[in-house]
Each structure stands twice: as structure tokens, then as C-alpha cells.
């Protein structure tokens, strides 16, 4: 849980220095990308050719601006490039020329280099344990074996944040599934799939979601966008998250061909109530477990833990609390 604590503390440090929610989300995800135990940045799963190819995206609720990279190699912190895209768009650069919002492959790397974002050799992203797992999966493939107990690494890292101005942001980063085809782009780079952020406006609350799981399933259902929609409309946040996981994912007709389904999400909702801002943090998953960490300005320290199903027969786990 150390890495989750560190990510929360790094983000809070940004906020205490009057940084924005999008800066805080980016910093939290960078911390997660730098840790070899996560499937993002350094330590990511390897694709079929033994190379690391990452996806990442960022969305700011203030303007709805979105930036993403897909199937990109050689970026020390993939999330930095979507951050630069969002920053340029919000500075009004798109009025001068077309601002890139989604770049893939070498084009994404070259764009990052042109902005002086740190790049490294492709092999420098390969962590020893990830390479060992790659060789194991290759051996399984050669022997035409299938194992239900082998972890192919669906895990994605993500973060959501609201700052003192009420601006909300969300981000996500992933190395994708092990042995994926080169060039495969997962949900972490796709609009409405990996993350969503939307500031409060009028009678509608501000909401954010960041999602992990099987990319193809999340993309087929546009789960994250649908979860955000429910957060906007449902009075009870737990009902919103459970209905999204159940109705929009597990029971989705778009997933009828899958025997196993995998998704988990973190969410926040901010709304005015009796003259003060009420912020709720919630999470939910259909997987056996999911790592969670959160921190608010009123908390003395982050809270980090692994949420697990109490019974294997449980369909959904969903919990959270009012944090402000």
C-alpha cells in the first residue's frame, strides 16, 4: 500500500501549493507509473514482440478537455504527454493551430520529444519481473496451454481529484494486457472509457471516474461515461455505482459473448448542499479485489487498502464515504 500512500501524498502536496486538480492527478499517476509493481510506465506488461507499449489519458472537468496517447513506447511517464495536450488546449493554442488530442505509436513519442517531455530507450521500460512473466506467457502460448489462474495483467492505474476551486480532473495509465498485439490501444486511451471528469454546473453535480479492467469490455460498454451519467442523475452515489457495474457492465448485451468480466472504478461527486460543498468518494468492482487509496484536506493521512469480495459468490463490491 506504500505506493498508493505516496501517490496520494504527492497529489496533496501539489494542491497545498495551489496547484490544480489536473496537476495533482498527473503527479499521482506519475508516482504509480514509476513503481515497478504497477502495470503502467516502468514495469508494464510486454506485448507479443517483447516491447512495452503504453496507453494514457487525462480529462479536465473545467472545460471537458481530453488528451491521450496510445501504444506508445519510450516515454518514462506516459501521462505527461496527455497533460501537455490538455495544458496547450486550455491555454488557447487550439485557436492558433489544431491541438493534438490523441496520438499513437511513434507519432506520440515524437510529439512528446518536441515538447521536451523525457523519453528513454524502449528497453529501459522493461522491468525484470515483467520480462519473466512475458517469457512464461510466451511458453504457455507455444505449448498451447490455458490457465485460468494466470494473471495476464489487466490492472490499470488511475486518479481523480477536486481542487479548492471546485475543478475536477481524472486520469488513467496502463501497459495493457500481457502479450497484446503490437499497436493495440486499450481503454486507458479511449474517450469515455478510461476516465471522465465534469465540473458542477447549474443543478448538476461535478463528477469524475477512473476505470480499470479488461479494456475491450470497458470500451464495448463505454462504461466510464455511463457511470458518470448515473452519478449525475442518481440521488444516491452507491446506487449509481452499483447500477453502472450491474446494468451497464455485467448485464450489458454488448458483453454476452464473455464468460468472465472484469471492471473496477473509483468515483467522486461534488455538489452544493445547504451552503457548503459536499464531496463523496466511492469505488466499486466486480473483480475479486482492487487496490484503493484516497486523501482529503481534512484527513491526517491517506487511507490505502485492498478491497476484496467477502464471498466468492458476491457479484459486486461497492463502498465509499463522504470526505468533505
Automatic annotation (TrEMBL):
GO terms for cellular component: cytoplasm. The active site is at residue 156. SUPFAM superfamilies: N-terminal nucleophile aminohydrolases (Ntn hydrolases). Coiled coil: none annotated. The record marks 155-156 as: Cleavage. GO terms for molecular function: threonine-type endopeptidase activity. Pfam families: Asparaginase_2. One of its GO terms (biological process) is protein maturation. This is Uncharacterized protein. It comes from Mucor plumbeus.
Amino acid at each position: 500500500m506504500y505506493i498508493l500512500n505516496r501517490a496520494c501524498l504527492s497529489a496533496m502536496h501539489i494542491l497545498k501549493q495551489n496547484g490544480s486538480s489536473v496537476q495533482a492527478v498527473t503527479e499521482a499517476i506519475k508516482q504509480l507509473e514509476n513503481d515497478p509493481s504497477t502495470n503502467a510506465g516502468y514495469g508494464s506488461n510486454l506485448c507479443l514482440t517483447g516491447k512495452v507499449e503504453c496507453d494514457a489519458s487525462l480529462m479536465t472537468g473545467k472545460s471537458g478537455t481530453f488528451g491521450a496517447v496510445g501504444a506508445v513506447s519510450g516515454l518514462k511517464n506516459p501521462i505527461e504527454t496527455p497533460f501537455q495536450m490538455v495544458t496547450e488546449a486550455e491555454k488557447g493554442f487550439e485557436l492558433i493551430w489544431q491541438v493534438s488530442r490523441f496520438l499513437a505509436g511513434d507519432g506520440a513519442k515524437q510529439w512528446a520529444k518536441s515538447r521536451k517531455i523525457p523519453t528513454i530507450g524502449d528497453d529501459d521500460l522493461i522491468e525484470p519481473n515483467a520480462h519473466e512473466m512475458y517469457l512464461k506467457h510466451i511458453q504457455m502460448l507455444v505449448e498451447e496451454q490455458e490457465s485460468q489462474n494466470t494473471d495476464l495483467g489487466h490492472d490499470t492505474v488511475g486518479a481523480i481529484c477536486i481542487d479548492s476551486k471546485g475543478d475536477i480532473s481524472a486520469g488513467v495509465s496502463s501497459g495493457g494486457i500481457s502479450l497484446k498485439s503490437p499497436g493495440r490501444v486499450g481503454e486507458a486511451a479511449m474517450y469515455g472509457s478510461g476516465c471522465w471528469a465534469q465540473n458542477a454546473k447549474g443543478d448538476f453535480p461535478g463528477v469524475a471516474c477512473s476505470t480499470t479492467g479488461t479494456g475491450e469490455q470497458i470500451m464495448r460498454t463505454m462504461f466510464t461515461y455511463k457511470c458518470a451519467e448515473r452519478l449525475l442523475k442518481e440521488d444516491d452515489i452507491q446506487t449509481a455505482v452499483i447500477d453502472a457495474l450491474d446494468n451497464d457492465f455485467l448485464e450489458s448485451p454488448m458483453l454476452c459473448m464473455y464468460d468472465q468480466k472484469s471492471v473496477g472504478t473509483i468515483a467522486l461527486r461534488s455538489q452544493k448542499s445547504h451552503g457548503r460543498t459536499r464531496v463523496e468518494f466511492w469505488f466499486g468492482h466486480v473483480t475479486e479485489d482492487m487496490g484503493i487509496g484516497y486523501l482529503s484536506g481534512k484527513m491526517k493521512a491517506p487511507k490505502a487498502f485492498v478491497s476484496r469480495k467477502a464471498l466468492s459468490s458476491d457479484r459486486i463490491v461497492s463502498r465509499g464515504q463522504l470526505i468533505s
